[in-house]
Design goal:
The complex is a heterodimer of chains A (98) and B (375).
Chain A (H helix, E strand, L loop, with lengths): L11 E6 L2 E6 L4 H7 L6 E2 L6 E2 L12 E4 L2 E5 L10 E6 L7
Parallel strand pairs in A: 1-7, 3-7
Antiparallel strand pairs in A: 1-2, 3-4, 5-6, 5-7
Chain B lengths: L3 E9 L3 H12 L4 E4 L15 E2 L9 H25 L10 E5 L2 H15 L10 E4 H7 L9 E5 L3 E2 L2 H14 L3 E3 L4 E6 L5 E5 L3 E9 L5 H4 L10 E10 L13 E3 L5 E3 L4 E2 L8 H14 L8 E11 L6 E4 L6 E5 L7 H14 L21
Parallel strand pairs in B: 1-2, 1-11, 2-8, 11-18
Antiparallel strand pairs in B: 3-7, 4-6, 5-6, 9-10, 10-11, 12-14, 12-15, 12-16, 13-14, 17-18
Helix pairs in contact in B: 1-5, 1-8, 2-5, 2-8
The chains are: A mainly beta (98), B alpha+beta (375).
Chain lengths: 98, 375
């Protein structure tokens, strides 16, 4: 769906998505990195379980929620990608204690 | 302008109180018009905390305690009937509720208030008990160490009050009531031969009876029909967290997890508010207290906050009245429109449909304020 602009060549960053080793680029938000990898749907809603993905990319729609390093409901569009992150889909409600 | 065809009864106010009455009246064959101010209304029905709450109700008026307990008991049937009729699940849960205390002094004061309430003449017993930290922590393991104990009442519960609001409107209109939005009432006049002529911003209409259920608006409407509605605004601020997996198995007086997973924190009581606005001072104080009760709340994001205006009478109890000067005019106002919705629809509406309030409601008349105050 999305392709990276060829003229932007930033260093790559290794992270994990759903347990698999994947790569993004320095300067990516988590959402941008996952969109570039072809992942449009990142969460399942707590009420109906339907799929949602990054939409506004500026922190207002809350549809890009993921679990990052064990903390649920992180807004993937607002979190800069870092090497070694463990990113997982947000399936339904987060746990309050994590 | 020509008057529209007459209605048996005009309910002024399209919030939870007015709609519960309209539903009850329409169910009893009354031709009902609901005159609603519109979306500009200061709508407590959209900002409330959604408790169906018993334990703290009635210190100073024993009759209010029994009326509240009665409504809570009617709620399961009421919610089931609304669900069957509208397809909307109100998320009613009545597992018992807590008032949590963060110090022994707080718990002692609350216990003393409960005992004073239960020692009133005419009090109908309501089950309650003081529970210590360990007992409450068995029910809710996330309880913070600073909670010394609390009051538990097995009759307390909560509901999704926005869905209640929607279901009441759907049900009232399905039962034949006419909902008229953007009809703020400008004047009400008792007609010489009986009945009332009501002027609204859009048109005039006539009705044999009229019920004032306009919340804070009742203060200006009541004198038009020879009634008195001394109500004032008291602001409450509320915030809600992101949705999380269920961990609060019981509602608390100031804290509850909704059926969809968000945790609502609220119940500030601010007198003489200029408007419904919220401020960081009160919200921060509420959040700090909530985190002491359940520390893991500290890791959650607050996604919304809002304020709403309670409709408070001088003593905090409801006003139910009928006009002597203009027979057929009724006044209904309270600050617990959610808890009392079942009683309003199932007990109060039939009295209004019959044309007179039962003597059992005499304690709720505004005449209780017509006494000289001590110097």
């Amino acid at each position: 769906m999305f392709r990276r602009l060829p003229e932007i060549a930033r260093a790559s960053l290794s992270f994990r998505f759903e347990g698999a080793a994947v790569e993004g680029r320095e300067g990516d938000s988590v959402a941008a990195a996952l969109l570039a990898l072809g992942h449009a749907a990142l969460r399942e809603t707590p009420v109906s379980g339907s799929a949602r993905g990054p939409y506004c990319m500026m922190g207002v729609c809350f549809d890009c929620l993921v679990t990052i390093d064990g903390v649920g409901n992180r807004q993937a569009c607002l979190v800069p990608l870092r090497a070694g992150m463990d990113v997982r889909r947000q399936r339904g409600r987060r746990e309050a204690g994590s | 302008m020509m008057a529209q065809p007459a209605y048996d009864i005009a309910v002024i106010g399209g919030g939870v109180v007015g709609l519960a009455l309209a539903r009850g009246l329409a169910s009893r064959g009354q031709r009902v018009a609901i005159l609603d101010e519109g979306d500009v209304a200061r709508r407590a029905s959209r900002g409330n905390f959604a408790l169906v709450w018993v334990q703290s109700k009635g210190l100073g008026m024993a009759r209010y305690g029994a009326w509240t307990t009665g409504s809570a008991a009617l709620w399961p049937t009421f919610a089931a009937s609304l669900r069957e009729e509208t397809g909307l699940d109100l998320g009613l849960s009545q597992p018992g509720g807590y008032s949590l205390c963060l110090s022994e002094a707080e718990l002692d004061a609350r216990r003393a208030a409960m005992m004073r309430m239960h020692n009133q003449p005419g009090w109908e017993p309501v089950p309650w008990e003081v529970q210590g930290h360990a007992r409450i922590a068995r029910a809710m393991p996330a309880l913070g160490p600073e909670v010394v104990g609390g009051i538990f009442c097995p009759l307390d519960g909560h509901v999704n009050s926005l869905r209640l609001f929607r279901a009441l409107q759907a049900s009232a209109t399905a039962r034949g009531a006419t909902y008229l939005p953007d009809h703020p009432v400008q004047s009400i006049a008792a007609l010489p031969g009986g009945g009332f002529r009501i002027e609204t911003a859009q048109r005039a209409l006539e009705a044999a009876r009229v019920v004032l259920a306009a919340g804070l608006g009742n203060a200006t409407l009541a004198p038009m029909v020879g009634l008195d509605a001394p109500v004032r605004a008291q602001r409450g601020q509320v915030m809600v967290t992101e949705k999380t997996a269920p961990f609060l198995t019981h509602p608390m007086a100031t804290l509850r997890q909704t059926d969809e997973g968000g945790v609502m924190i609220g119940d500030s009581k601010e007198e003489a508010p200029a408007d419904e606005s919220v401020g960081p001072g009160v919200l921060a104080a509420m959040a700090r207290r909530a985190i002491r009760m359940f520390p893991l709340l500290g890791g959650l994001n607050v996604v919304r906050s809002w304020g709403a205006l309670r409709v408070m009478s001088p003593d905090g109890f409801p006003l139910y009245d009928q006009s002597a000067a203009a027979p057929g005019a009724f006044l209904v106002t309270c600050h617990s429109g959610v808890t009392l919705a079942a009683a309003h629809a199932e007990l109060l509406a039939p009295m209004i449909a019959r044309g007179t309030l039962d003597a059992s409601l005499a304690a709720f008349s505004a005449r209780r304020f017509d006494v000289p105050s001590a110097a």
